[in-house]
Design goal:
- The complex is a heterodimer of chains A (238) and B (112).
- Helices cover 36% and strands 14% of the residues of chain A.
- By secondary structure, chain A is of the alpha+beta class.
- Chain A has two domains: 98 residues, Beta-grasp domain (Ubiquitin-like (UB roll)), CATH 3.10.20; 131 residues, Fumarate Reductase Iron-sulfur Protein, Chain B, domain 2 (Orthogonal Bundle).
- Chain B is elongated, with a radius of gyration of 17 Å.
- Classes of the chains: A alpha+beta (238), B mainly alpha (112).
Chain lengths: 238, 112
């Protein structure tokens, strides 16, 4: 392990440039530690985003050596090449400044995919009883742990080619709700996730599944949505 | 184009792909058989002319191509050239008609 890490960091907006910093190497150092060191010790004007530091909040994702990653749980040991690191904002999103990407479009697409839970019961009704081992519950479980970090969205080639595409995270969220027996708006949701700018646009490249830090498979959920919207279209329910 | 139409086209492309998988294999097997057996053009025509089974098989093949290719091209044009909307859709309908037309001309050529 060399004593110093050479780090290229994106500075500026969409038309910015990389600037190089030298950061002392430490044991168990994460990429977020490196970025924090730069801001606190070398250049206080550096803008970046983080909150929990423990892989729960989903706010610290950046492009590290060309690939989107959650920086708080990414050890420098695993990604540095010859003592070098390159850190940039997430791809497929507008850059606000330095390492901060504008997430509005990402979350607006969750809303477009009808990612909000809308129950059909009131407090006067009994609880919906859902067997933990039921097929729908297990499908929802497999996709439910998304932290909304945007890594899958930044990794997706279809988003890059078709900016209107809803993207893996929004569709993954819709898939959990399609499998939620308590939700009362699934007909509307299936309409929202059908079509060329939604689930049907996925080319199954699996970049989202490969990059998801929570080891989810949005690709599998999107495949499920494709089946669901196809059935709905053939029945005339879309 | 409505979301339902887009979805039905997507289903049609997958269904035609399944048909094409079988047709392409049968077509390749036929070519290999014809070449290995050293059949001449006249011998091949003698077998296809008036043969309703071959006519039906290649008609299905051509129509599956005419359905499959333009729908795939729709996504290619949208993602690579940013071409969406009605003009593209009419161009693709024309392409489908062209594929079906020249394909069926070939099928009739070896049947009639």
């Amino acid at each position: 392990m060399s004593a110093v890490l050479k780090v290229r960091v994106w500075r500026g907006g969409a038309r910015g440039a990389y600037r190089e910093y030298e950061v002392p190497r430490r044991e168990s150092q994460t990429v977020l530690d490196v970025v924090t060191h730069i801001q606190r010790a070398l250049d206080p004007t550096l803008a970046y985003r983080y909150a929990c530091r423990v892989g729960m909040c989903g706010s610290c994702a950046m492009t590290v050596n060309g690939a989107p990653r959650w920086t708080c749980r990414t050890h420098v040991d695993k990604v540095a090449q010859d003592g070098r690191l390159s850190v940039a904002p997430l791809k497929n999103l507008p850059v606000i400044r330095d390492l901060v990407a504008d997430m509005r479009e990402f979350f607006d697409k969750w809303a477009r995919a009808q990612g909000q839970f809308k129950g059909g019961r009131t407090r006067a009704d009994d609880f919906e009883r859902i067997a933990p081992g039921s097929e729908a519950r297990r499908r929802a479980d497999a996709a439910i742990e998304c932290i909304g970090c945007g890594v899958c969205y930044a990794a997706c080639d279809v988003v890059a080619a078709n900016p209107g595409y809803l993207g893996p995270a929004a569709l993954n969220r819709a898939w959990t709700l399609v499998n939620d027996a308590r939700d009362a708006t699934n007909a509307e949701r299936l309409r929202a996730v059908a079509g060329d700018d939604a689930s049907l646009a996925c080319h199954t490249h699996l970049s989202c599944t490969e990059r998801c830090p929570k080891a989810l498979s949005p690709t599998a959920g999107i495949a499920g949505l494709k089946r669901a919207v196809s059935r709905a279209a053939l029945r005339g329910e879309l | 184009m409505s979301r339902r139409t887009e979805t039905l086209l997507w289903v049609a492309q997958r269904a035609s792909a399944a048909v094409l998988a079988v047709c392409v294999l049968a077509h390749l097997a036929t070519i290999i058989y014809a070449v290995q057996s050293g059949l001449t053009g006249a011998e091949i025509l003698a077998r296809t002319r008036g043969n309703v089974a071959w006519f039906a098989f290649y008609t299905v093949f051509v129509l599956a191509v005419a359905v499959h290719a333009p729908i795939g091209l729709k996504a290619v044009l949208a993602e690579w050239l940013g071409w969406r909307g009605r003009a593209r859709d009419f161009a693709l309908i024309a392409f489908a008609v062209l594929l079906a037309g020249i394909g069926m001309q070939a099928v009739f050529g070896v049947f009639a």
